């Protein structure tokens, strides 16, 4: 399993979701939907529901940069990316 490869991940059997906030140097080290004939059948549904979930979160929570982490530093890419992710403080909206 590429998601538990000890050559790519430190302590591969430990649950550490933060390790995926920064893309791995190995392009095929993180493939949440699989690849080729083994691609996840739910990928299209997940890709459609992702923006819907995000819009619902923004409606119900106030979002701010987490003060306990460094501000995001952008990196050159074909898309909008940061070097170490973006840490957000979420608080339920009042009223």
Question: How would you summarize what this structure contains?
Answer:
With 95 residues, the chain is an alpha+beta fold.
Distance between the terminal alpha carbons, to the nearest Å?
46 Å
Question: Major beta sheet, specifics?
Answer: 2 strands, antiparallel
Strand order of the largest sheet: 1-4
Helix content: 10-25%
Q: How many beta-strand elements?
A: 4
Helix and strand content put the structural class at alpha+beta
Strand content: 5-15%
Overall average residue pLDDT: 81
Succession of helices and strands: HEEEE
Q: What Rg, in angstroms, do the CA atoms define?
A: 16 Å
The best one-word shape is extended
> Could you list the spans in which at least 5 consecutive residues all have pLDDT below 50?
none
Given the structure, what is the number of helices? Answer: 1
Question: How would you describe this protein?
Answer:
By secondary structure, the protein is of the alpha+beta class. Helix content is 19%, strand content 15%. The protein is built from one helix and four strands, in the order αββββ. The chain has one helix at 43-60, and strands at residues 61-65, 74-75, 81-82, 88-92. The strands form two sheets. A two-stranded antiparallel sheet has the order 1-4. A two-stranded antiparallel ribbon has the order 2-3. A hairpin with a 5-residue loop joins β2 (74-75) and β3. The longest helix has 18 residues, at 43-60. The protein is extended, with a radius of gyration of 16 Å. The chain starts with 42 loop residues before the first helix and ends with a strand. The model has no long low-confidence stretch (mean pLDDT 81).
């Amino acid at each position: 399993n590429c998601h538990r490869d000890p050559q790519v991940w430190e302590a591969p059997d430990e649950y550490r979701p933060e390790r995926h906030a920064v893309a791995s140097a190995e392009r095929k080290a993180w493939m949440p939907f699989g690849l080729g004939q083994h691609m996840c059948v739910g990928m299209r549904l997940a890709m459609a529901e992702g923006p819907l979930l995000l819009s619902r979160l923004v409606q119900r929570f106030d979002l701010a940069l987490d003060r306990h982490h460094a501000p995001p530093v952008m990196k050159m890419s074909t898309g909008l990316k940061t070097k170490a992710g973006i840490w957000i403080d979420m608080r339920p909206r009042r009223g």
